[in-house]
Amino acid sequence: CVGVFGVCFLVPPLISVQNQHVAAAVNRSTLFECEVEAFPYAIHYWEREGDIIENSDKYSITRIDVSNYKFIMQLNISSVNDADNGTYYCVSKNDEAIVAGNITLYSKYF
């Protein structure tokens, strides 16, 4: 548990997104990151247009544990094209709350 002097407390998910607007070159990959703090353990996933994103040739999802209550969610999008434009949501849910951060992708021809 997270606590001081033997007193435990629950932490609803807190999501921090450093880059909420991302311009990516067409036909290149791009990486999104959301930093999450939560206790107890949080279920986490990525969404776009109401659909849960799963690992595929297009999307690679990674979780990096920082501590027992903090982790980084990553979404790598390969071969970005105009159809990938839009808002992506990193979602985290535990017994306390459900929270989402958002990142908007803009494809660019460089």
What does this structure look like?
There is one protein chain. The chain has 110 residues and is mainly β. It is 0% helix and 64% strand. It is built from no helices and eleven strands. The protein has strands spanning 2-4, 7-9, 11-16, 21-25, 30-39, 43-48, 51-53, 59-65, 70-77, 86-93, 98-108. Strands 4-11-10-6-7 form a five-stranded mixed sheet, with no helix packed on it. Strand 1 and strand 2 (7-9) form a beta hairpin. The model has no long low-confidence stretch (mean pLDDT 92).
Strand fraction band?
A: over 45%
- Mean pLDDT comes to 92
Our measurement of the CA-to-CA distance between the termini, rounded to an integer number of angstroms, reads 48 Å
Task: Summarize the main sheet.
Answer: 5 strands, mixed
Structural class of the secondary structure composition? Answer: mainly beta
Low-pLDDT segments, ≥5 res: none
How large is the radius of gyration?
15 Å
Q: What is the number of helical segments per DSSP (H or I, 4+ residues)?
A: 0
Strand order of the largest sheet: 4-11-10-6-7
Topology as a string of helices (H) and strands (E): EEEEEEEEEEE
